[in-house]
Amino acid sequence: MRAFDWLLSAPSRLRLPLLAALAVAGGCAMPTGGEPLGRTSEAATVCAAGSIVQGVDVSVYQGTVNWTDVKAAGIDFAIARISDGSDLDTDFASNWTGMKSAGLVRGAYQYFEPGENPTTQANIVISAVGVLGAGDLPVTADMETTGSQTPATIAANLQTWAAAVKAGTGKTPMIYTAEGYWDSDVASTAFAADPLWVANWGVTCPELATGWSSWSIWQYSDSGTVSGISGAVDLDEYNGTLAQLQSFAGGGATSSDGGAAPYYAAQYVSQSWPLASTAWTMTTCQTTAATLTLKNVGTTAWDSNTRIATTQPRDRVSLFADSTWVSGNRAAQVTGTVAPGDTFEFKFDFHAPPTAGTYTEYFGVVEDGVAWFSDPGQGGPPDTDLEANIDVTAGATNCTADPGVPDGGSHADGDGGTTTGDGGDAGKTTGDAAAGSDGGVMPGDAAVGEESGKAPPGDAAPQSPSHEGGGCSATGAGSGLGAAGWALMVVALVAARRRRGGALSSCCPPGSSRSALPLRTHRAWSSGRSRCT
Fold it and tell me: N or C: which end of the chain has fewer CB within 10 A?
């Protein structure tokens, strides 16, 4: 009923297009000769600059959404309603967490009521989303109604709201509106520097309200169909690449072509073994299950190429690898995806070598084929920040290194090429010389491939290289095994051990023909349809 009250109070030039839209929504046919429906002026029409990213916006009127299916349908961002003024949307909390869990860039909007207290409305927003993080779009003010207020009052109340929301969430809000509403009922250019989410359905390119020369998001349809969402849903597109969208939603490095570069960063949460300040004791050939939990504090989702990898130097084959590892120099990898802000528990085993001694090992995080998290422009951790300090004491006799280390394939360094060590030879041994700059590879008679997990026969027992700066140091008599029993132990990585007790370094993340004036799109006002977000 409120929608019809509002319709009667609308400017006379808008009533016919709005009545036409209502008639279509109600299943009635209505002639639309002459100017396209909803085209109220010759406003500036601005097309996307190039690449676009698909999104949706929802509210309680979409019911329960399966966000995993939405993501699988090719949707990369979604925006959910917090409230209509002070009237809370009962599905917001589940949508807010569901979008993030599915790996979507997420956003939130509030249907702004100009006749209600703007500070009260802003506090509802802040309470709902808190300080926005990486992967969170700025909150949007949905500007569609007058609340019987004058343009000057609407603009002033919106300014109050925007200042409070920026202070509370940490990001300048976005404005959702349509030219036909804004130019007549707000008539302000004071928000022209704020990101614009323009609503204009069924046109090739949207018309912009006065003051804006570009748009960030365009709501181009109110009747889309997307897997995971029952009924019709609003369809949106972001004006840019996915990397630029991710940067818009949380910051990140800028590439040479002006786009946003992927920003990888991990923050230490917990581990199952002692901190490196306390030696961890294992016996020879002992196998111990381990976990390392990290939080994604970057702007890019983790995937199966996100791995715990040996460092000091990078890519060394570990003496502690076993069949649970991805390969000799990759302890574990992500399963599924880990969205920015989420945590992941890496699971793998440590299999102690058959030689007693003291081993100091480091590892880092890598997005294979893209970058190490410690590379310039990324967010860490540093290659020396995760450390394992392990005392291997004599235990089992005549034991051997675990022969079941899988071959995880060629791993890529930060430049997208094949793996190379930092100052070494990627953890390989050639003849009698130890590879790597820090002596972290056990010498032997035969060459050992980086991921072979096995060595050719030979007679020389491994020596005891220094462990300063990484690698391993084994002390004590050899077991008398030949090189075949030692080759798997080409270098030492004791995956994941926090060197000090503090938090892990995270750095800063930081077409068509129909045209309708999309006012009231975020309210349930259409007769004959169950949607309307």
Answer: N
